[in-house]
Every structure is written in C-alpha cells, then in structure tokens.
Write a structure and sequence with these properties.
By secondary structure, the protein is α/β, with parallel strands linked by helices. The protein folds into two domains: 2-47 and 371-431, Urease, subunit C, domain 1; 49-365, Metal-dependent hydrolases (TIM Barrel, Alpha-Beta Barrel), CATH 3.20.20. The protein has helices spanning 75-86, 91-108, 133-145, 177-190, 209-215, 231-241, 245-252, 269-277, 286-291, 299-304, 321-336, 349-365, 395-404, 429-444; strands at residues 2-11, 14-24, 27-32, 40-47, 49-54, 110-117, 148-155, 196-197, 200-201, 223-227, 259-263, 281-284, 308-311, 379-382, 410-415, 418-422, 425-426. Strand 2 (14-24) and strand 3 form a beta hairpin. The radius of gyration is 21 Å and the shape is globular. The chain binds zinc ion. The site of zinc ion has 6 residues, from loops. Zinc ion (ZN) is lined by residues 53, 55, 116, 226, 262, 314.
Length: 445
Amino acid sequence: MQTLWFESVLLGTGWAKSVRIGVADGRITSIETGAQPSGERQGIALPGLSNVHSHGFQRGMAGLSERRGRPDDDFWSWREVMYRFLDRLTPEDIAAITAQAYVEMLETGFTHVGEFHYLHNDVDGRRYADPAETAGAIAAAAEESGIGLTLLPVFYAHGDFGGAPPAPGQRRFLSDVDGFARLVEASRARLPADAVLGIAPHSLRAVTPEELAAIIPLVNGPIHIHAAEQTKEVEACIAWSGARPVEWLLDNAAVDARWCLIHSTHLTNGECDRLAASKAVAGLCPVTEANLGDGIFPAIRYLEAGGRIGVGTDSNILVDAAGELRGIEYSQRLAHRRRALLAREGASVGRTLFDAAQAGGAQALGVTGGIAIGHPADIVALDANHPALAGMADDTLLDAWIFAARHGAIDAVWRGGRKIVTEGRHIAAAAVAARYRQTVASLLA
Ligand code: ZN
C-alpha cells in the first residue's frame, strides 16, 4: 500500500484539488479530494495515455530517410529504406531498439503501447523454431521498460490488393492462415501477465477477404488494420473492389468497438460519418503522417460526428505524446487557416484532445484508462514548477503542456503503481540507451 498526494488531478469527473490516491497491488484503491498532504507529494496528475500504434524497430531508422532519393520521393520510397533496414535485424536487435522506443514513450506520458508487430520470420524469410521468437523480443522490451503492452501480431500474406504475390522485401512478414494461428498461440504464451493480445490484419493490400474472415475469430481482443493512409492505396482499392478502403471495411467487416482503423486519413464525408457511428477508433499518427506525407485526417467533421480517436507514434520518428495531440490540431489550422478548431463546447483544445485520446486509446488497446478506483495506477505527473506551466490551472495546464512546454514538463510516471519515470528520466534509461547505441551503431556500420 502506498499513498500519493497531488495538488491537482484530472479525474474522469474533471479536475480535483489536493488529492490523495491510495495504491495497492498496482491498482488505485482510494481517491480523497481536499486532503491534507501526505505520502509522496507531486504536482499535477494526469491519467497515462495509450499509444495505439507502434512499430518499435522503426525507431532505429529514425532520421535515415530524410534525403530525397528521387524527385517524387514519397511514402513508397520511404518503405524501401525501411525494408532494407529491417533486412538484417536479429531478435536481440529488435528487443534493444524497441526497449529504447518504449522508454521514450514512458518519458513522454504514454503508459501503454499497442505494438503492431509484423517482423515474424528470420532474415531468410523462414519461421524461427519458436514462431513467437520476435514476439518474445517485444515482450522483453515491454517488461524491461515497464510499459503496458497490447501485442497485435500482424497477418501479412500478399503484396497488393486481390491476393497479389508478396515482394522479396516482405519475406519476414509472411504467414498463411494456419501458420498465423500457431504464431498467435505461441505469442500468447510469451506475453507479460497483464498484457492484452489482439490481432492485426496488416491492410487490405496484405490480406484477402477470405483470410480476414478466417483470422478474426483467433482472438477476443482488439482488431487493428492500416486503412486509407495513402491516396495510391485508395485508388488501388477502388480498382480492386469498387470501394475505398474504409468503405470496404465498413461494408464487409462488421467494424465495431473492437476495431481500430489506423490512419483513416483519406475519407469521404460519408465514410467519415459512418466510421464515427461505428464506435471504432481512428488511430491517428500525425507526427508520422506528416513525416511520410500521408495527408490530413478530417478531424473537425469526425469529432463533431462523435467519432472516437486514439494517437499512435507509428514509425517512432519522434516519440512525443504531446506532439501527436498538437499535430492533430495544427494540421487542421494549416488546412483551414483558423484556430482552436477541435475544442468541444466548454473545453479547451488540449482538454478535448487529451480526453478523446485517453478514452479512445484505452478502448483501442483493450485496457481500462483513467484515474478511478479499481483501475491500474497508470499516472503521469506534470512538474508544477515547469516554466511553461507557471500560472496555469486545470485545462490550461493541458494546453500549456501540449502546445508550449518543449520538454521537461513530465516529472514522473507510475505504471501499475510502480514509479518508473522520476525527474523526467526513466529508471532504466541509461542502460537501455547504451545497448541501443551499440545496436544501431553496428547495424549502420
Ligand atoms: Zn503503421
């Protein structure tokens, strides 16, 4: 049993002052407002955020694809660089790089990650003796960092729509349905005790309708899929089926609250409204989407229609929870030449986006979010003495953190009641970074 005391806490019911939180066995057992300071005293407590979309290993190639390889450099040429990078990764490399990404996530306010894990086979494209060899590397990175894990093993069988044969660069991803079922079961056995197991058909490029129907019953957990990230993908989907990717899924895949459609960037108004009504989560990754030149999600219409969102760091080009939230609003401002576009009635932009990403992110990863009795003690403390937060209270604290704080605003993070970030640094940051530097240096040598 431990006691934490905060000046200010964002509860499900709103902001509360002078709050004492009791924690036992990793869960919140009591919340008392207007309480005298006792136990460990901190500044401002927020519930931890869920990072709905990560490819951990891609952290190791961040910054390697910022030259123009050809005049029309785009997502597809970035993907070639990514395929060359992952060609050589061992399970140990994956664990080392992913641990670094997870440490950075925790330091920035994410307490849970959805790992969209597709690197299943060895460098020659053969299954490892244990089909969950690389899933084990992800689990090890989660355990070392302490972040909560929702593992989403990826089904990937084809190179393009209509069951086209895969390219050589995709050999480490590939499964058939039976092999994938074995992979999912083997992955289940490697997970940390409190982890969640979902499933991820990679995209409609990589899975046929028959395969999609066959793999969905393999788990009870979340279902994630990349959809409508690129206009070329939308055009190819129409050529294949007569429908756009999100439209096809809504028409054919019984999309509901179990689903998270990653990106969903290119939507017609009709798709936008239908996706909002489906109760699925749109997994927005604005930092990566900007880096890859994907496009701008129609957030104004979608949120007005009651749509659910989560945020993800995807390529991990820059791991920054506040940056993802900021990116959603800034992309709308740039597109519409107005300000404060996503603020709901009676709340600031920061509060609106934080609440939406907190609730939608937890739904998408199959976990309970929010600071409440009985929930896991996943708490992020802002430093009340950080200059960017001076004079701020309640919702403006969130606005200042998201739009104005640069770094250092996050002081501490507890995950499952364990304090794993203190004074802004993860307790294993130095050791994890040392191994990461060695791993990346030898990969790039
Ligand atoms: Zn992705």
